[in-house]
Recover the amino acids of this structure.
């Protein structure tokens, strides 16, 4: 093997090692893998403008959910009889992944910061709204 | 030897008594009949046991007998069996809020009651201990 060929081979190996895989070009919380998200605070608001701090348990929402974009669903991790919600839409904007859907008489939006995993959720119904904050982690 | 052990116990007990009431005046004992330091330790040990027996309050293990604590509010809505996540969201009912607030007030009242009972027990113990030491020839101030 000539010196030139050997040099090219070494360069190719170096490029392969140093170049990051394509997936890291996007944020790590971009939905490419399922995530586990914990709800840390819940605010229950009514149309008069009054909001009150709650826990997830107070408003019958799971404290930990799994977000699976590939399966387009979210599920309750803790409950024996799992609760699930179908994700209708997935958008990506400015480093945020925005999921949305509708259930019964409510519509919801769940936003995840693709870099940090910070989660914000709103669920709106007639004269009421729930705002939740939390943090997602990659299993 | 036993007197020394008791003295250590009394010192520890005194520390425990003093801990929650730092700043409160602690009694001093002066041997009016020329008792030695060893005798004083022994007297303190015996008075400690007597005062605990009389008052039912042990400063080395400060507990008081109070009614059972009120149940704590779990804050959990009845779990929904299966179903959906957001459709299952439920506003906390007014009665639940009232119950939560009432139980929080009960818990606070219970804590205050315990605090008062502890302070009362400690005061009784100190009075009894002082009376015992006076009876053994110490001036208590």
């Amino acid at each position: 093997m000539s010196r030139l060929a050997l040099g090219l081979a070494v360069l190719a190996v170096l490029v392969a090692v140093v170049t990051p895989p394509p997936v890291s070009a996007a944020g790590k919380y971009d939905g490419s893998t399922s995530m586990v998200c914990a709800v840390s605070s819940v605010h229950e608001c009514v149309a008069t403008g009054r909001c009150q701090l709650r826990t997830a348990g107070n408003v019958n929402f799971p404290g930990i959910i799994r977000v699976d974009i590939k399966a387009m669903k979210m599920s309750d991790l803790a409950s024996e009889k799992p609760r699930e919600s179908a994700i209708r839409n997935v958008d990506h904007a400015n480093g945020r992944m925005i999921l949305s859907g509708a259930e019964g008489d409510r519509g919801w939006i769940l936003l995840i910061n693709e870099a940090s995993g910070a989660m914000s959720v709103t669920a709106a119904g007639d004269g009421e709204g729930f705002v939740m904050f939390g943090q997602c982690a990659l299993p | 030897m036993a007197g020394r052990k008791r003295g250590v116990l009394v010192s520890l007990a005194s520390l425990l008594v003093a801990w929650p009431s730092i700043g409160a005046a602690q009694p001093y004992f002066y041997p009016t009949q020329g008792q030695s330091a060893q005798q004083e330790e022994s007297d303190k040990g015996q008075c400690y046991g007597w005062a605990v027996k009389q008052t039912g309050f042990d400063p080395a293990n400060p507990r008081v007998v109070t009614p059972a604590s009120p149940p704590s509010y779990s804050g959990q809505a009845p779990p929904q069996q299966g179903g959906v996540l957001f459709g299952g969201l439920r506003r906390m009912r007014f009665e639940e809020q009232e119950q939560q607030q009432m139980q929080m007030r009960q818990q606070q009242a219970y804590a205050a009651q315990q605090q008062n009972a502890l302070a009362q027990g400690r005061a009784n113990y100190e009075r009894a201990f002082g009376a015992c030491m006076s009876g053994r020839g110490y001036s208590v101030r």
Summary: Confidence is low (pLDDT under 50) at residues 13-18, 20-25 of chain A. Helices of chain A lie at 3-18. The longest strand of chain A covers residues 35-46. Chain A touches chain B at residues 44, 46, 52, 54-55, 57-62, 65, 74-76, 79, 81-85, 101, 103-106, 108, 123, 125, 128, 130 (CB under 8 Å).
